[in-house]
Task: structure prediction
Amino acid sequence: MAVKMSKKAASIDMTAMCDVAFLLLTFFILTATAKIPEALPVDTPASTVQTKLPETDLATITIGKGKVFFDLKGREIRTRALELMGQKYGVEFTEDEKTKFALMEGFGVPIEGLKSIIAMKASERSKAGQPGVPKDSLDNQLAEWVQNSRIANNEINQKELQIAIKGDAKEEYPAIRKVMDILQDQKINSFSLVTGLRGKNF
Amino acid sequence: MAELNTGDGGGGKDKKVRSKKQNSKVDLTAMVDLAFLLITFFMLTTTLSKPQSMNLGLPDKDDKDTKNKDIKVDENRTMTILLGDNDKLVRYVGLLATPVAGGTPKDFAFGKGGIRAELLSRKASVLAYSTAKGKPKNGMIVIIKPSKKSNYRNLVDILDEMAIVDVPTYAIVNDFTPEEQKLLEGK
Result:
């Protein structure tokens, strides 16, 4: 009898533990947001500064391989910015295209080619070889995008739009400087640089 | 809860059911292990995916440059850092033609043993100098000059050093004098 008793206590009942574990697991899976594939993958340099980027009111300018991509947070703001850009350059976007644009990731095409990018599937976009948003003084669409996004953000959220620059570590300085100059021309003197995480004892 | 009911289908054969009772509990250990592994994975990925950022403030860009040009700065407080290609870094203290003691142009490496040690010692000496003059609030000024060939990583690295060393005033300046250009290209 005594031998049998000890055998019963040998295995702990894990049912409750298992329940809790799976409950937590479900919670974390549901709260985790699916990562949207980046249109222009860049390798950001690391820094020890640990300021987090804001989740809203943010425009990200990605610089890599000599190209510039633009991304904006917030569906309404994206739609409004697209409308303003359409008016400026005389391109008409349908409601369907606006909804699709609100949900897609960053892009890097001139406004004339934006329609075809919107029409593509997400998997095709990354392979499409987007040439980047034009930023020369003759056709400075990047400045227009920044300007109109700021207007859109101000209209909808009544807040000033934050700008983040996400540059590739190997990108040469003049390319970064060009973007900074565009921002400074609009009196944006303070912005964030997106960096990776580096160990404390660097 | 997790016990398997093996007794129901047994019918009249009581003895055989009893022999199966040892297996009636399912071992949940492996399942719990797996669940916790996945929890750890999802927890880490959700918290680590947020990108880090570094704030950068640039001085007002004025079309009429003449207004801002005339601020006189004590050359004993300034250090100029030139960034070149292939992670080259040259620094000098004071004016290039007449550098202060120990501040002649010199190559440094990025990181702890290189430019950071130099920045820290120079910061201390500038503080001592300013305190001696009765203005302990006047800290070091660092001028960062990235050349056309320098890359973005170097710029972020040096800005990071500014944050680590806690340099009170630093600025990114874009214009190069021919002498500085020569300095970067090597002797």
The two ends of chain A are 63 Å apart (CA to CA). The mean pLDDT of chain A is 83.
